[in-house]
Structures are given as structure tokens and as C-alpha cells.
Amino acid sequence: MLVLLPPSETKSPDGDGGPLDLAALSAPELTPVRERLVDALVTLAADAPAARTALGLSPGQDAELARNAALRTSSTAPAVERYTGVLYDALGVRTMTRAQRARADRRLAVGSALFGVVRAGDPIPAYRLSAGSALPGLPGLRALWRPVLGPALTGTGELVVDLRSGAYQALAPVPGAVTVDVLSERADGSRTVVSHANKAHKGRVARLLATTTAEPDGVVRLRALLRRAGLHVEHDGGTALTLVLPPS
């Protein structure tokens, strides 16, 4: 089972790994695109006004440009520890047992505008690039990634649970992947899309899938696994699951 997580804009500045080695990352077939994007970000960082425009940053966020300028020389950390925020707090890899973390490292991957996809243990530096960014002199990220990232994600032979946000799914859809929508049920029975807490609930789902000793091989068994964990999960056919939160 491969669980695809969204990245986060916020990233930990920590890391004690050596400099970025693109050849050492998972999915080496993505290296040529990774090289182009790293080169483009390093070059762009030297022109602060252009970089702010391309990346949607304010002058107060110039520390992000410094991170991009140092992409090839700064320290690295495992991808699943580099990304931070609500989803990754709920995932809580630092609180896992050794056995749980080993399973998580095998199962988790993160979608990335810069790297396409990285496995949980891939060593990466802090950086700033979003799925919606447009870099001067390069095609759009969707045009760059889709031809190579799509086959990389569909060729694993694993059940794929795609928890990426829409913008990252658009970089390379995975046909047949299981998706999870989060809805909140009101007291009157009506339902609404969860926005603020969506990432936290997906982080909890990701933790469950990353650490379970079960090996679900399809959407039906995946639904059963989530239900056994006490979650209200509905399946109306196809590969989409709906996690319904009870009235608060």
C-alpha cells in the first residue's frame, strides 16, 4: 500500500543530513525534471522581485528565497520530518514505535512540486515551491510532471491511497487510486465539507494506514480497516471513500 500525502508550505528548518543528492531519491526516473526545477529555483532566488512574483511571496518572506538559493548546499532531513503543519502533527511520526516507523517509511510518500514525489525517508532540504507556481522560462509544473510522474505513481503495483490536495493530484492523477473526502454531519442530518480540520483528519487516517499490520488490497478492505478503527466511512462504489464526522 502506498499512501500519498500532500506537502506543506511550512517546513522544518532542522536537518543533519548531507547536501541534496537527487540521484539518491526514490523514483530516479524523475531526476531530469528535478534537476531542471532545482536549477531554476536556485537561479531565480538571485532575483528577489522576480522570485517573489513567481512564488507568491511578500518581502517579509525572503527567508524562503534564501532556502531556495541554498538548495544544493543546505542540510537535509527525511521528507516525512521535513514537512510540518496540521496534517503532519496528526500523523505524528516522531511518536511512532520503531516497528510503526518502519512500516510508515515503506508506505508513505509525499507529493511535491519540486521533487514530484518523495518517499518518507528520502533526504530533502527545506524549499519553497507550490503546485500553482509558474517559473520563468519553464513550462507549467503540470506539463513538466505529468508525463513522468504519472507512470512513476501508477507503476508501483501497490494499492494507492491518494490523500493529496487537488492541486497536487492535478500534477499527476493516479487512475484507480482510493481517495478520502471528509464531511461533517450537522444535527439536522445535513452535511458540509470540512475545511479547517480536513488536514488533521487526513493526518489521522494516514497514521492509521501507515502503522497498521494489515495489508488491504482494495477499497473494500480499506473501508473495513477504517471502520474497525471506529471511523464512520461510507463507500458508494468506485474508489472514493467518505469519512463522515459526527455532530459536535
TrEMBL record:
Q: Name one Pfam family in it.
A: H2O2_YaaD
**Entry GO CC:** cytosol
Q: Could you tell me which residues belong to the region Disordered?
A: 1-20
Which branch of life, at top level? Bacteria
Q: Name one GO biological process term.
A: response to hydroperoxide
Please name the PANTHER family in this protein's record. PEROXIDE STRESS RESISTANCE PROTEIN YAAA (PTHR30283:SF4), PEROXIDE STRESS RESPONSE PROTEIN YAAA (PTHR30283)
Q: What is this protein called?
A: Peroxide stress protein YaaA
From the broadest rank down, the organism's phylogenetic lineage runs: Bacteria, Bacillati, Actinomycetota, Actinomycetes, Geodermatophilales
